[in-house]
Amino acid sequence: MRIFWFLCGGWQAASSRIHGYRVHDFLRRGGYASSLALAPPLWAQVDDLPWSDVKAVRAALKADAGDAVIFENLRGERAIALGRLLRDSGVRVLLSECDVQQDLGLAEVSDEIICASEALAEDWRSRTGSRTRVIEDPVESILPPEALSNRTRPLDRGLTIGWVGNYSHWATLDTLRSVLRRPEFSDFRLITVSDHEKADVVWSVHRAQATLAMCDLAVVPTTTTTYARAKSTNRVTQAMALGAPVIAGRIPSYEGLVQHGVNGFFAETADEWERALRLLRSPTCRHLLATAAHAIVSERFTISAIAPKWLAAASGCETSLRPDTLTVGPSFIRMPRALLAEELWTYARVLKRFGRVGRGLLYAIRSTVIGGRTRFNM
Q: Is residue 376 in some structural domain?
C-alpha cells in the first residue's frame, strides 16, 4: 500500500504540518511508502488543487487499487473531481478535517473523514452521514522524562503564565486578564504568543514551544461556540508535553483529557481562575500536575503513538502494516511540466494577495534550481 498526500498549506500551516508533513516524515523514516503530491510553499494556502487537468494528475500519481490518497482541508471542484476518479478506480480516499466547515468539500467522494476530535467527528457525521474516524493531534515537541525533575521552579511568586493562540482567540483571555489585575495576582506575568498585533511574542512554531517550555504554567481558555467546541486537544497536550501545568476551559476534547486537580485544572469564571492560580503558586502542586500530564501525553500523543492510526485509516483496517523499504517510492510526486507551471502560477496569485510576489518568485527559483524540503517549501 502507498499513501499520497494532498495538503492545503506549507509547513507553517498548523493543520498541514500536524496532520500531513509530520506524519509523512515519520512514515518515510519507518520505511513506509508515503509521498507528497501537493505541498504548497511555506506561506501559501489553497482550498483546491492548483491543476485544472485532474486526469493528468491521476496519471502522474500512478496510484493503484488498494493505495490511499489523503486530502487535507481541500474542498474545491478539482479536488472533488480527482477524488471521484481515484475512488472509482479502487483507491481509498480520505478527507482530513480539523475544523467545522460549512462547505462539505470532498465528503461525498470520501471513504472516511478523519477528524481531530470526537465532537468534530460527530458534527461531520450529523451533516454528511459519512463514516468518520478520530485521530488525535500528535505533540510536536516533548520534554524528556528525566528533565521534569528540574522543570518546576521553587517559587510561589513572580510566576509566568504562557498562552499560545490565534488572533481570533485573543478575547478568550479577558476573564483571566481581569483576575490578574487584582492585587493578589499582580505578581503573575502573562506572556502571549500569537499573530495578534498586541502579542508579546510573534507566533512561530519554535517561539511557541520555547515560551511554553520556560513558563511556570500555561492557560488555554475557550469559548462555547460550535467551532470552538469541536477543537482538538492540541493546545493543551503541547503545553503538557513541555512540562507546563495547564488551566483550561471546558470543551469536549479537553474534558476527555484533563482530570481536574490531577493533571490540570478547569477554569471559566473569575472565581475558578482565582482558585486555580492560588493552588498553582505551590511548586509541589505544579510539579505533581505536570508529571501526571506528561505521562499521559508520552503514552498517547507522541508521533510514534499517532502515526499508526493514520496507517490503519489508510488501509481501512486496524491491523499493523509492515514497512516495505523496497517499494517505499519517491517522497514527492513529480508532476508534468505543464502542471508544474500552472501550480507555480496559482501560488503566485495566492502570495500576491498578501503582498508577497517577491517571495513567490523566490520560491519558484529555489524549487527549480536548488530544490528544498518539498518542491517549493524553504
A: no
